Amino acid sequence: MARRAQPISASPGVGAALFVAALILGTLAAVALRAEAGRGLGASDWAALRFTLTQALLSAVFSVLLAVPVARALARRRFPGRSLLIALLGAPFILPVIVAILGLIAVFGRAGWISQALGFLGFEPLQIYGLHGVVLAHVFFNLPLATRLILQGWQETPAEHFRLAAQINAGAISMWRLLEAPMLRQVLPGTFAVVFAICLSSFAVALTLGGGPRATTIELAIYQAFRFDFDLGRAALLSAVQLLLTGAAGYLALKAARHDGPGAGLDRVLQRWDGQNTSARLFDLFWLLAAASFLLLPLAALLVSGLPGLPLLQASVWWAAMTSLLVAACSTVILLCLALPMSAAVALGRRGGVETAGILGLAASPLVIGTGLFILIYPIADPFALALPVTALVNAIMALPFALRILVPRASEVIAGYGRLGLSLNMIGWPFWRQVFLPRLRAQIGFAAGLGAALSMGDLGVITLFADPEVATLPLQIYRLMGAYQMQAASGAAVLLLLLSMGAFWILDRGGRWHAED
Amino acid sequence: MKYSVFAAALLGASAAYADTPELTVYTYDSFVSDWGPGPAVEKAFEAQCGCDLKLVGAGDGAALLARIKLEGARSDADVVLGLDTNLTAAAKETGLFAEHGVSADYSLPVAWEDATFAPYDWGYFAFVHNADAAAPADFKALAASDKKIVIQDPRSSTPGLGLLLWVKAAYGDEATAIWEALSDNVVTVTKGWSEAYGMFLEGEADMVLSYTTSPAYHLIAEEDASKAAAAFDEGHYMQVEVAGILAGSDQPELAKSFMAFMVSEEFQSIIPTTNWMYPAVTPAAGLPEGFETLVTPAKSLLLSADEAAAVRDAALSEWLDALSQ
After folding, report:
1. pLDDT value at position A136?
2. Which pLDDT value is given to residue A470?
3. Of A15, A365, B50, B233, which alpha carbon lies 20 to 30 A from A413's?
């Protein structure tokens, strides 16, 4: 594609992408170089690879397919509490794994709410453990994210399109063909790639809900190589396989996506005329209720078990909460500093490399990144002194793929719609950033920052490798509480974490959409 | 240690701080947590050593060993506390440890003759259940029953590895058959102890792999007598937790006095109600009230460090094969 003159440059974004790629590949190389001769991949590793791919594929397909009707219902219905519901739907995604597992089991487990209800009716308890349990858990985690990403596709369709569609009296089928299908073709592949990549590096969820070692994933094999065999070479090799798979999936998905956006609109207030008949209303109601109960029941279970624990929390838990807030704030700033230039670079046509670098953050095993950074930092500084900056940086890299999915579609539209106008007004460089690019991406920046902050808050990431007894983050403190039999206090701390993450997400996301469409 | 001083300078600590000798002890996370022995141990040792005891948590026992291997001879650590006998062979192989020079009148059920690692506490692995439910008397009875159990993965968890070696020590070549018979009792396998214990408390399984001392926590700290550990006729596998001095320590004398402190009355009486294990040397005042209610296995099983290292790979693949079907 010939590059025409543009009001902003792609080089900062390309630089950010190079930095991310260097960090991920550099840590991997550090681990590999530190390795003594180890053994290569064995039969059990290939079995792990097959299981990993199967569960990731199924989880991504179900998460994305189920998210389409939910997002459509949210896009065309307005009801009291809608924005609260949208915010709450984000909660599963940001919970620490151990907490989410206990929440899921409280509802779907052998002694869970559903099994108890089935017991009253004389049925056998629910059998959650197995491949279906893994997929169920991954859909629980990722359906909300997929829904938000797809919903954003609907929200970015200019209001004028719906007005035009109403004027030509477009029915459900025409609406689908003219507006919804093209939008989904643009949004779904990227969403699929992100969910697939997340599920690819799943470990504790897959093992616990998969019911045992037949549910061994690559990430667990990395863990085994690292701590059972101390075979760093094999850990690095497995991690490279995981990176390759994610990179390939991401590349294929992005290639499959359409890149012509819906075009710029005049930012009118959205009004929908379609989907007003009874069957469409019932259809949407069904999907909203189904999604809300599936996602909110486990959260309710966590609240029920955790609220009595809140008053038990000791000062150390509150300090950990402050630390987590600080880490999340730094992480969010780093995230935006990387993601904004990268999204602009993608919008300017530097697609493949920059986007792929962005998605690698998902595939990188936290254990390998952490170990690699440890090996790199150890000779020059005290890793403990750097625990918090390193955690903030790694959390930002891990949230980067999500931020790019959120920012890139809108960034492409802004460059396509306003680039020439900017050039003709001689609005080049920073003035274009400040007066056009950033303001028009405000909602997306808020969403991405909210998600980044919440993810950073809930992520254990690399802190365990660098942890210093005095500076625990809240998720680490939850693990410590559980390890000391303090289950009640741990569930209280989990509620605190949930409230803080949701609060950070809510504030940033609302901040971005302030004065904008509800 | 120069790095910590560098860090302290960075953080603006006073220069006087650097004059006090500092002893760095790497241990596992739950040792240093507010609810573990860490805070009390630090206070007691600092009162007598005129030094600054820095306890550093690094995951669990296996992560601790990986950490020491990564840092190698340049490690800041003077003492490593929290390995168990399933890890000591690999730890010794690194050549990073020196002799501890500690002697004590241990109350372990087995004789202790390791010159590199000294024990500070020990316990028996056991399946914990609700006291009002009948418990099977051995692995075979458990496998024949319809009791559901949650266990930990030996690849990611210390108790998980302990169970693997327990079955191996009790049944040898029969271990595969035992695991195959147990496979329909296993609800699921978790990454670590916390997940498994949490699931058990939620009622997800009848029994969970933990320690014979777990009911003591519920009894003493929560005044709840509803949990019990099942006594198995085959005997119970032991976990002996040990500490060792790093050969590269720049505070060898201080490290030795810490090791001596570790087997002393003061340290040992902190252990039972903070680490919820048996002290390696029973304090003069005896064990805390409540410990007498715990089951005492008729037989103690423990593979030596070398045996454990020799059988664990084969035992792991038996376990994987039996539970993957």
Report:
1. 92
2. 66
3. A15
Stronger pLDDT, A27 or A160, i.e. the higher one: A27
- Give me the amino acid identity at A361: G
Q: Are A402 and A429 in contact (CB under 8 A)?
A: no
Give the Å distances, CA to CA, from A363 to A16, A31, A35, A47, A249. Answer: 18, 16, 21, 19, 11
Chain B residues closer than 8 Å to A209 by CB? 188
Compute CA distances B97 → B80, B123, B243, whole Å: 9, 24, 10
Q: What is the DSSP string of A442-502?
A: HHHHHHHHHHHHHHHHH--TTHHHH--TTS--HHHHHHHHHHTT-HHHHHHHHHHHHHHHH
Q: Is residue A118 part of a domain?
A: yes
pLDDT in tens, B98-130: 999 888 899 999 999 899 999 999 999 999 999
State both tokens at A322.
């402050």
What's the CATH code, domain B2-122+239-292? 3.40.190.10
- Give the integer Cα–Cα distance in Å for B191 and B39: 27
Phi, psi of B273 (to 5 degrees): -100, 10
Phi, psi (degrees; rounded to nearest 5) at A83: -70, -30
The CATH number for A300's domain is 1.10.3720.10
pLDDT of res. B241:
95
A377, part of any domain: yes
C-beta atoms of B59 and A464 within 8 A: yes
Question: Is-contact A485 B276, C-beta < 8 A?
Answer: yes
Residue A110, pLDDT above cutoff 60 = yes
A334 falls within a domain: yes
SS3 of B209, please?
strand
pLDDT at B10 over 60: no
Alpha-carbon gap: B172 to the closest alpha carbon of chain A (Å): 21
- Rounded Cα distance, A210 and B189, in Å: 9
Does B159 contact chain A (CB < 8 Å)? no
Task: Identify the closest residue of chain B to A480 by CA–CA distance.
Answer: B30
Domain with CATH 3.40.190.10 in chain B: 2-122+239-292, 123-237+295-324
Is A259 contained in some domain?
Answer: yes
Enter the tokens of residue B302.
């423990």
Nearest chain B alpha carbon to A382: B3
ipTM field:
0.82
Nearest CA in chain B to A223: B156
Residue A135 has pLDDT above 60, yes or no: yes
A143 within 8 A of A295, measured Cβ to Cβ: yes
User: Residue B10 is nearest to which of A212, A316, A385, comparing CB atoms?
Assistant: A385
**C-alpha–C-alpha distance, residues A17 and B70, integer Å:** 29
Mean per-residue pLDDT of chain A: 83
Q: Can you tell me the distance from the alpha carbon of A350 to that of A436, in angstroms, rounded to the nearest whole number?
A: 20
Q: What is the pLDDT of residue B249?
A: 92
Nearest CA to B191 out of A464, A284, A338 is that of: A464
B240: which strand partners? B122
Answer with the residue of higher pLDDT: A358 or A49.
A49
Rounded Cα distance, B50 and B254, in Å = 10
Domain hosting residue A439, numbered range:
45-512
> Domain B123-237+295-324 maps to which CATH number in 3.30.470.20, 3.20.20.70, 3.40.190.10, 3.20.20.120?
3.40.190.10
Q: Coil, strand or helix: which one is B191?
A: coil
Classify residue B206 by burial, with Cβ atoms within 10 Å: 0-12, 13-18, 19+: buried
pLDDT over 90 percentage in chain B: 74
- Segment B230-234 mean pLDDT: 95
pLDDT digits (tens, 9 = 90+) for A17-52: 888 888 888 888 888 887 766 666 777 888 889 999
Average pLDDT on A374-386 reads 79
Q: Output the pLDDT for position A463.
A: 64
